[in-house]
């Protein structure tokens, strides 16, 4: 295509190259996973408003970790606003095994998912976002992240990749220190202290979600993706949403 700003980065034995998106992937689960992986990876930050305090601010991602295997995709994200000492947590889960089982048993449903992506109960996704985590839990999470930083600072980061098995659901971790500095590592149970620290954070988040009592009406949030998941869904499936 003409006037493609990315063409200059591409070389090979072709006459021309198209860089874009076409809804042509015929494999249902692969096509679905491409969209869900982006959607569930989540935004880089959360815009939030607290009506009764007249606060309109932004919490950026500071810590993210995920577990993914053939049967599931699950992640946990922590966002923090230093100016207002405001913490947001988000947990996402996709039951890939259930979707695969349901789709493979129903040819009509499989055809519909191939064309539209989101059909009836497909996909089986559950996302929870909790804003303004209370002081005690917030301090536990931030202390655990500081301890993670302390452990990382004394390690050779490259050695963390030597014993990784990509098929056993090890943790993929992203630690963002500011808008320009982040590290990404893979952690398994052979790196016991790091593994235990991440499990600790996961348990704290799980307890917060499971024990949530009130739904606070004064909070309004906006998930700040780099590219809109709705636009990606429309582009991937050629939909007019």
Give your account of this protein's structure.
By secondary structure, this protein is α+β, with helices and mostly antiparallel strands. The protein contains six helices and eight strands, in the order αββββααβαββαβα. Strands 1, 2, 3, 4, 5, 6, 7 and 8 form an eight-stranded antiparallel sheet that branches. α1 (28-41) crosses α3 and α1 runs antiparallel to α6 (229-237). It starts with 27 loop residues before the first helix and ends with a helix. The model has no long low-confidence stretch (mean pLDDT 85).
The helix content is 25-40%
Q: Whole-Å distance between the termini? A: 26 Å
Low-confidence stretches: none
**Main beta sheet strand tally, sense and closure:** 8 strands, antiparallel
| Number of helices in the DSSP assignment | 6
Q: In sequence order, what are the helices and strands, one letter per element?
A: HEEEEHHEHEEHEH
Tell me, what's the shape? Answer: globular
Report the radius of gyration as a whole number of Å.
20 Å
**Class per helix and strand makeup:** alpha+beta
- Report the β-strand fraction as a percent range: 25-35%
Count of DSSP strands: 8
Mean model confidence by pLDDT:
85
């Amino acid at each position: 295509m003409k006037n493609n700003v990315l063409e200059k980065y591409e070389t090979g034995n072709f006459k021309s190259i198209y860089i874009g998106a076409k809804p042509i992937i015929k494999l249902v689960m692969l096509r679905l996973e491409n969209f869900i992986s982006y959607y569930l990876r989540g935004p880089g930050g959360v815009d939030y408003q607290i009506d009764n305090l007249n606060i309109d601010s932004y919490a950026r991602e500071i810590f993210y970790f995920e577990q993914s295997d053939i049967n599931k995709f699950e992640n946990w994200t922590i966002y923090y606003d230093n100016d207002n000492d405001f913490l947001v947590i988000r947990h996402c889960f996709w039951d890939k095994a259930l979707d695969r089982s349901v789709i493979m048993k129903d040819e009509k449903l499989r055809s519909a998912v191939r064309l539209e992506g989101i059909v009836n109960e497909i996909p089986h996704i559950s996302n929870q976002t909790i804003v303004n985590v209370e002081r005690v839990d917030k301090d536990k999470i931030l202390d655990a992240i500081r301890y993670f930083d302390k452990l990382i600072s004394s390690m050779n980061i490259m050695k963390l990749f030597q014993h990784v098995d990509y098929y056993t659901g090890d943790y993929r971790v992203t630690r963002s220190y500011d808008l320009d500095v982040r590290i990404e590592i893979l952690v398994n149970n052979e790196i016991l202290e790091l593994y235990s620290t991440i499990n600790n954070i996961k348990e704290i988040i799980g307890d917060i979600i499971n024990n949530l009592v009130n739904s606070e009406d004064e909070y309004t949030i906006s998930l700040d993706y780099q590219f809109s998941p709705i636009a990606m869904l429309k582009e991937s499936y050629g939909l007019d949403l």
